[in-house]
Amino acid sequence: MTSFDEFINRHCKYVRNVVADMMSQPGSGRVVAGFVIDMFCTGMIDVANEFNIPTYVFFTSNAAFLGFQMHMLSLRDDRDRDLAESTDSDATIPVPSFVNPVPTKVFPSMVKSEGLDFVTRIVGKMREAKAIVVNTFLELETHAIESLSCDSSGPFVYPVGPLLNLEDGAGKQLDDEVKRWLDGQPPSSVVFLCFGSMGSFEEVQVKEIAYALERSGHRFLWSLRRPPLAEKGFGNPSDYEDPRVVLPEGFMDRTVGIGKVIGWAPQVALLAHRAIGGFVSHCGWNSVLESLWFGVPIAAWPMYAEQQLNAFAMVVELGLAVEIKMDYKKDMFNPKAEIELVTADEIEGGIRRLMADETIRTRAKEMSEKSRAAVAEGGSSYASVGSLIEDFMRNIS
Known about the structure:
May glycosylate diterpenes or flavonols in leaves. With 397 residues, the protein is α/β, with parallel strands linked by helices. 43% of the residues lie in helices and 13% in strands.
């Protein structure tokens, strides 16, 4: 984390030079109205301050997690609380951006690692920003957004989501064979399993998933990826030349009529298909927003980063998902780290609940309508973007 921080901050001098050059050319018509930065680039706030330019942070996760980070900083700095000790118990901790007390078991791993200093440092810098632009919408995270608005010590929050790359996703067409198979399935009958660009499992876990799918009897489409080699450390998953090498013997023959195992998946195009009725997901925020956009309910199986908190929000706070293993954690930076095995019984139970719970399915459909309305003219996020633009215009007037 420290090296990552240093890498970002080394770019400050180059940004400073570019901005100085832009501002030294009077009459060019170019005006720097503000900096818009990622949450990991908070060192740029010091550069913006040198030019008396306001900074806006674009926060790609949700408002509840933003509030969690702000609260963790407060607990550590204002109340001198040892956060690492808190995560070693079955305790729950009240967090203003969540309605329910949050179990420490779903705290991100960074809270009890050396990454905590890095995170609290960038969150502390985020408090110096003029505003934080969050990829969420008021109708989804009403409580979290209102709690942040009540925090007078923090920057103003603009919820502007859901911001999704739907055109690019739609442009990545389904494989012809996969599309033909999906087209032949009944509406909302297929369970789609996909764990994000970094999601993969070792063979022993793959077999448990396979047993669960076969026993559940539900139609399925499974994006199965090969983990990066342990000796290479951190890396991206890849596709298997033949997934049979990690699947139970005869699995693909026995499920040939009801399921398909594929490699990389065009997630947006799949979630948009009428046959998809449930999504077993790692609960990355972008995946959550995509599933809600298409009204597909989720079975939560988080893996790393803030995904456990996302799962808690979806399952407990919002009632838009069922749980497979909400406190599951995988160390994406250490493939050799020991991890807990999620059993076939747990996975099968989650899949059955996902496909049978009509209340959650109805809620997901309702939230789909609200997500689309939020970004349409007159919607809450549409209005928030308008207010953000007005804020920028005041900076150059």
